[in-house]
Write a structure and sequence with these properties.
With 347 residues, the chain is an all-alpha fold. The protein has 17 helices and four strands. A two-stranded antiparallel sheet has the order 1-2. It has a two-stranded antiparallel ribbon with strand order 3-4.
């Protein structure tokens, strides 16, 4: 299939998808709309972690920390003065922060930029580590962020968190951002930088011998990942309208890491598919936590049972699909219509 036809098909698919989002925003109930929003946000977060872990080969576990930074920055910039005053009833908010306000799009960008700065400051020292040591260091960063946010009451309201955050995240914002991130990563990974990331993943010694600056490219990948995670955290905060430091613990990074592994380490398409599937399944499995009457037996509702069932499903996937849904492959129009069609056209 010719490249022009592929571009036209991609544009048509994106337009049709946004027509569906327009219909969904108008006709679906709020619960289903929220699930669609969560699918988009989880796609963004999964792609963020896949950039470092899947494409660059860095075992990073700091995604939740960058999400927290982005969520708090966006919340403080979008909340009106009255809502801020109401939240900080025990310890007054910093006067500078009380007067700050920005449109949602500016808040999103600033959330990503602040997360990038934090990612740069964290990455500069820890990216000299490798393997498990890097994972432990980035995991420690996530825990440090949670502790810092709990104890900086004049900035984050401490353990009480922030409530009444404007719910600006709608389907157009979440999925629009997801589409931009997908396209941006595709362009990045098809560039010389993307090839350098993959070379580092495959063999650092060989990549260095080819003239690739290992530290520069690792730090670049880590910072871009932090930017994307910060935007994802901002979208999440402005969707659920309340945040607190306990939301951004290691368990959140663990869920995102599972999505990366399930979709395929080093596959953008796999991340999109796995994040969407896991988000929907996690909601459907809420039914197993409620009392069920199967006719021949009645089962009581057991809190947390959906995580047990979900973990069993993941074990099955790990046993029978070890490379994930897509492995390192990507969706293409040739794959959909068959390679034969492409050969006939070229002939």
């Amino acid at each position: 299939m010719k490249s022009t036809a592929k571009i036209l098909l991609s544009i048509a698919a994106i337009l049709l998808f946004f027509v569906f989002l327009y219909w969904a925003q108008k006709n679906l109930d709020p619960y289903k709309v929220r699930i669609l929003n969560l699918c988009a946000i989880n796609i963004i977060l999964t792609l963020s972690l896949n950039l470092t872990n899947g494409f660059t080969g860095l075992f990073s576990l700091g995604t939740a920390g960058f999400m927290a930074v982005g969520a708090y920055v966006s919340a403080l910039l979008t909340m009106p003065y009255d809502i801020k005053t109401m939240n900080f009833f025990m310890v007054p908010i910093n006067p500078v922060l009380a007067e700050l306000h920005a449109p949602f799009i500016a808040a999103l960008i600033l959330a990503g930029i602040v997360s990038t700065v934090v990612g740069f400051l964290i990455g500069a020292p820890v990216l000299k580590l490798k393997g498990d040591y890097l994972a432990i260091a980035t995991l420690g960063f996530g825990e440090i962020i949670s502790v810092v946010f709990t104890n900086t009451q004049t900035i984050t309201n401490g353990a009480l968190g922030l409530k009444g955050i404007p719910q600006y995240t709608i389907l157009y914002w979440s999925w629009g951002t997801a589409v931009i991130v997908i396209i941006g990563l595709m362009m990045l990974l098809n560039s010389s930088y993307g090839r350098a990331f993959k070379a580092i993943r495959e063999d650092e010694t060989a990549a260095q011998a080819m003239g690739i600056n290992l530290f520069y490219h690792k730090l670049l990948s880590f910072s871009i990942s932090a930017f994307i995670a910060g935007i994802g955290g901002a979208l999440l905060g402005n969707l659920i309208s309340t945040i607190d430091p306990t939301m951004f613990r290691f368990s959140l990074t663990y869920q995102i890491l599972l999505m990366v592994v399930l979709g395929g380490m080093g596959s953008i398409t796999g991340s999109v598919i796995s994040a969407s599937i896991m988000t929907v399944i996690m909601e459907l499995l809420r039914a197993v936590e409620s009392p069920m009457n199967l006719g021949f037996i009645s089962l009581p509702g057991i809190p947390g049972m959906r995580m047990v069932v979900f973990s069993a499903l993941l074990i099955a996937v790990a046993l029978f699909m070890r490379r994930g849904i897509m492995g390192e492959k990507e969706f293409s129009w040739d794959m959909l219509f068959g390679k034969g069609a492409g050969r006939r056209e070229s002939a």
